[in-house]
UniProtKB/TrEMBL annotation:
This is GGDEF and EAL domain-containing protein. SMART domains: EAL, GGDEF, PAC. Residues 270-523 form the EAL domain. Residues 129-261 form the GGDEF domain. PANTHER family: CYCLIC DI-GMP PHOSPHODIESTERASE PDED-RELATED, CYCLIC DI-GMP PHOSPHODIESTERASE PDEF.
Length: 523
């Protein structure tokens, strides 16, 4: 103690990257690794010893290890004094309690370990008392991180956590779970009680918010389970709450869902399909097929090209619609191999068809997951080059909603695709709730107006005006327009005067297998 020299064990030197086993200015070196929130307790305990107020050191705190992770430490030490009462030797044990700390640093809330422990504790101590469990997930949190940056995202999490706390009744506690999720435990929980809590939180976040002069939207979805009704163990309850949250998000976000039989069946089917799809991919894309749907020039009704559309079937569920299996492929990452396979299939077919019709254009859908895969653009370029199809005969389709919510990131991708010579279509236009300004910010080569605007075109003045207006706007800036979903002559007659460039709809052809498409159009 007189020289302020400490000796640390080897394991500690390694884990915390100390200068060596013998450290001279130990308090400073070790103190620098202690978490800010715990420094006070740590320093106070040291000071007590130095001041001679106590000879026992007993404190718990977090320290940062060499990987930058916070590790909980428990220090127990004892001070020896000389005849004069001066401190001579301080010795003790530091126990590494691991990373299982209790408090989330960002929000100051208890973390998920405490959430789990509290539920386990309630179940074991008061098995007859119902518990309401809610997992709250921030809707499109990724978008906030992308829009600004991670530290702004962190602030949004903090602000949201405060809002949630404000509206909690005394018998409820909120916890920070992983990432953008919060957990709420409502003791004596009922459906009504949980709905009440959600209702207040909903009111608080369901509008534009502002922080540091930056505006943002961040609504919350909720998935709920009740003990003992839905499950009797922590693991079941948390799993079902997670399913319910996923369900709420899939239903359009910004809403609450309670666990139900329907949710369980849907999820079981989804897990089942995931496995079947995986098998199918492993077996060389067996059971996958690419169909082609004709696109025609709107005025001449002559062939313009085709959109490649994925199909998949299995013995158990038969033909599964792409609206169901594409999201599963996206979530599982399988869309990466499957998307490549579809792209190659489509190019292969196109290579043959352009021999008959050099202007034939093949359109392929790209999922957001593919666009976030760093190597995907390289792959596309390679595939196009080796297929022999001129890049100008290839259109990639991305949905308006994806483009709109990723404007910053997507610009570079657009530039690369364009400079290679391929074209970009903005798919499902009119359904993404983006402003028309998007056409100025991120100009596509083609805009595909969604078929919801065609459905009632013969009766809805709005729909017809919308189409007319978009066509005019696009043509003024050199964007071509494709109208999707024309099913009848009546619809065709209604839209024809408005000068759309291309039409894709059942009137001219349904999606069909490659060989059928070839027979129908090239023989
Ligand atoms: P999408 O890209 O908007 O594709 C057009 C959808 O509209 C196709 O549905 C097509 O069959 C349908 N359709 C076209 N004309 C008509 C019509 O006149 N009436 C009606 N009622 N429907 C019409 P499909 O094939 O079921 O595909 C649904 C969605 O699944 C696609 O919408 C696309 O988002 C996705 N998808 C399909 N294939 C792929 C793919 O290879 N990759 C990716 N990422 N997504 C795909
Ligand atoms: Ca499409
Ligand atoms: Ca579409």
């Amino acid at each position: 103690m007189k020289t302020n020299t400490f000796r640390y064990p080897k394991a500690m030197v390694e884990e915390f990257e100390l200068p060596g086993e013998v450290v001279e200015n130990a308090a400073a070196v070790w103190g620098a690794r202690v978490h800010d929130l715990d420094k006070k307790a740590f320093l106070e305990s040291n000071q007590e010893i130095t001041d001679g107020r106590t000879d026992c050191h007993s404190v718990e705190y977090r320290a940062k290890n060499r990987k930058g992770e916070w590790v909980w430490m428990r220090c127990r030490g004892h001070l020896e004094r000389d005849e004069a009462g001066e401190p001579t030797l301080f010795a003790g044990i530091i126990t590494n309690l691991g990373k299982k700390n209790k408090i989330d640093h960002l929000t100051g809330l208890f973390n998920k370990f405490e959430f789990e422990e509290e539920i386990e504790r309630l179940i074991s101590t008061k098995p007859d008392q119902p518990i309401g469990i809610m997992i709250l997930g921030m809707d499109e949190f990724k978008r906030i991180n992308d829009l600004y940056n991670r530290s702004f995202g962190d602030e949004v999490i903090r602000i949201t956590s405060q809002k949630i706390q404000t509206f909690l009744p005394p018998d409820a506690t909120v916890y920070r779970m992983d990432g953008d999720e919060f957990g709420i435990i409502l003791r004596n929980g009922t459906v009504h009680g949980l709905k009440n809590i959600y209702g207040k939180i909903y009111q608080a976040v369901n509008h534009q918010q502002e922080f540091n002069g930056k505006k943002f939207y961040c609504t919350l979805s909720a998935g709920c389970t009740l003990y003992p009704l839905d499950g009797r163990t922590y693991l079941d309850l948390i799993k079902y709450a997670g399913y319910s949250l996923e369900y709420a998000k899939n239903k359009g976000k910004n809403q609450i869902a309670f666990f139900s039989e329907e949710i369980l069946i849907g999820k079981t089917r989804q897990l089942d399909l995931t496995e079947l799809l995986r098998e199918s991919v492993e077996q060389g894309f067996e059971s996958f097929e690419v169909y082609y749907q004709l696109q025609v020039n709107a005025d001449t009704r002559k062939i313009k090209g085709a959109e490649a559309l994925a199909r998949w079937k299995c013995e158990k569920y038969g033909q599964v619609p792409p609206d169901q299996f594409i999201p599963i492929l996206e979530e599982s990452g399988l869309i990466i191999p499957v998307g490549k396979w579809i792209f190659e299939q489509a190019l292969g077919a196109c290579a043959r068809w352009i021999k008959e019709d050099p202007d034939f254009v093949i359109s392929v859908n790209l999922s957001y997951v593919q666009l976030e895969d760093a190597g995907f653009i390289d792959f596309m370029e390679q595939a196009v080059l080796s297929s022999g199809v001129p890049p100008a005969n290839v259109v990639v389709e991305m949905t308006e909603s994806y483009i709109a919510s990723n404007i910053n990131r997507i610009e570079g991708i657009f530039d690369r695709i364009r400079s290679f010579g391929m074209k970009i279509a903005m798919d499902d236009f009119g359904t993404g709730y983006s402003s028309l300004g998007i056409l100025k910010k991120i100009p596509a080569d083609i805009v595909k107006i969604d078929r919801i605007f065609v459905k009632d075109v013969q009766t809805s003045h709005f729909d017809l005006t919308f189409i007319k207006f978009i066509v005019e706007l696009c043509h003024d800036v050199g964007i071509e327009v494709c109208l999707e979903g024309v099913e009848t002559e009546g619809e065709y007659e209604a839209v024809k005067p408005h000068d759309v460039d291309f039409i894709q709809g059942y009137l001219f052809g349904k999606p069909v297998p490659e060989s059928t498409f070839e027979e129908q159009n090239f023989s």
